[in-house]
Specification:
439 residues; alpha/beta; Aspartate Aminotransferase, domain 2; 37% helix; binds pyridoxal-5'-phosphate
């Protein structure tokens, strides 16, 4: 391969990247295997973020690559509209088996963002099918991240979305986030903050619970800095939703499929939503795919009506349930099951959190948070320049051989589930070295 030069970086407009700065000082991965990347200069880099939370089995798994290759030769494309193929049905069955009880109807998309917007449309269609078309509002949270499509942008509780794109979809109201200063440096679920669920009761009192279609929550707010739910919080949100006939949607794009050490965070926290989105771990990052698991009564309310020749849910993507993605998904789920990978994640989580929280003595840290194999180390922001410390630190970490995602001034740590103690020691060791060096 010819060496990458500044000249041939120009045409690509990169996502969620400061493009000008990147192209002055690019970070280029050219190879990956197991828990490591290699850069174009030959440096070996530990993957402390499972790529973007989506490679829990480590890189280059031959079983998945071969399943995709064979699938493409056998049946490359079927098109999900009025045509099926066996692996789509089989993967839906396998996902339904893993999902919380009752969430046994599965709609496929190609990303987490598409899964979120699909879930919004399912919620609206459900209420309309039942004669409750006045339920058009959605509730989510400050500091939520629900992807980049217009629905998800409106749900997300992120200032940059409003600054860049305006108010977006109307009728979205946000509860407060649960990142309380009094819970700082608490591993796992914090004790304080369950009362923040009462924001939902206040929103129902103000806007009318009967006007709200759904509440969207990440059980652990992920992309904006890993906020595990305070004890009792999700339970109370569930209660209020049920009281008012509002659907509860868990956005488990990050937390789904093992990140908490359980199939889904719903099972980890013992709270069952009505609809659940997933994406990241579904194919081990080897094909794009997202999915929505839906309670059967919601599916039935939409599907069990109208003339038989009529499409019941007017929605779908050209690449919904693409055969290659389904093959990758089935292969990944088989490995999860065969090698008891989620159990390994659950068993190694205390070691991971213990090592990571061992950094609490370092200067310049505001907080450490974590649950399962997902954590954040929050750095003190530079005065007047929020996000700069996070950005610069992730660059220094990369130079030191560790790939992490920075979100604002939080460094997100999400090792592959197959990480062993030695990998976690290496990860925390590099973090300590870099964070101890004021640079
Ligand atoms: N929802 C949540 C909770 C996410 O964390 C993400 C991505 O990180 C998304 C949705 C969007 O997923 P994607 O980037 O695959 O569109």
């Amino acid at each position: 391969m010819p060496p990458v030069t500044a000249r041939n970086l120009e045409n690509l407009w990169m996502p969620f990247t400061p493009n000008r700065e990147f192209k002055r000082d690019p970070a280029i991965f050219v190879r990956a295997e197991g828990l490591y990347y290699w850069t174009d200069s030959g440096q070996k880099v530990l993957d402390g973020a499972s790529g973007l939370f989506c490679v829990p089995l480590g890189h280059g798994r031959p079983e998945i690559a071969e399943a995709v290759y064979e699938q493409l030769l056998e049946l490359d494309f079927a098109g999900g509209f009025q045509r099926g193929h066996p692996k789509a049905f089989e993967l839906a069955r396998r996902v339904a088996e893993l999902a919380p009880p009752g969430l046994n109807r599965v709609f496929f998309a190609n990303s987490g963002s598409e899964a979120v917007d699909t879930a919004m449309k399912i919620a609206l269609a459900y209420h309309r099918a039942r004669g409750e078309g006045q339920r058009t509002m959605f509730v989510s949270r400050e500091r939520a991240y629900h992807g980049v499509n217009m629905g998800g942008v409106a749900l997300s509780g992120i200032l940059r979305n409003r600054e860049s794109f305006g108010p977006g979809v109307a009728g979205v109201v946000h509860m407060r986030h649960t990142g309380l200063p009094e819970n700082r440096m608490t591993p796992g679920q914090p004790e304080r903050g369950a009362e923040l669920a009462e924001d939902l009761a206040r929103i129902c009192a103000l806007h009318g619970g009967a006007n709200i279609a759904a509440v969207f929550l990440e059980p652990i707010a992920g992309s904006t800095g890993c906020l595990p739910p305070p004890r009792g919080y999700l339970e109370r949100v569930r209660e209020i939703c049920s009281e008012h006939g509002i659907l509860l949607v868990f956005d488990e794009v990050i937390t789904g499929l093992g990140r908490t050490g359980y199939n889904f965070a719903a099972q980890a926290f013992g709270v069952t939503p009505d609809i659940l989105t997933m994406a990241k771990a579904l194919t081990n990052g080897m094909q794009p795919m997202g999915a929505v698991a839906v309670a059967q009564e919601i599916h039935d309310a939409i599907v069990e009506r109208g003339p038989l020749h009529q499409i019941e849910f007017f929605h779908g993507y050209t690449y919904s349930a693409h055969p290659a993605a389904c093959a990758a998904g089935l292969a990944a789920l088989s490995i999860y099951e065969r090698d008891k990978v989620f159990e390994h994640a659950r068993e190694i989580s205390p070691y991971f959190l213990d090592r990571l929280f061992g950094l609490r003595d370092l200067r310049g840290l505001v907080d450490i948070r974590g649950y399962g194999l997902l954590a954040a180390v929050e750095l003190e922001p530079r005065p007047g320049q929020p996000g700069l410390a996070g950005y610069e630190t992730q660059k220094r970490l990369l130079r030191a051989g560790l790939h992490l995602k920075a979100t604002g001034d939080s460094l997100l740590v999400a090792p592959p589930y197959v990480a062993e103690k030695t990998h976690l020691d290496e990860l925390v060791g590099i973090l300590r070295d870099v964070l101890s060096d004021p640079a």
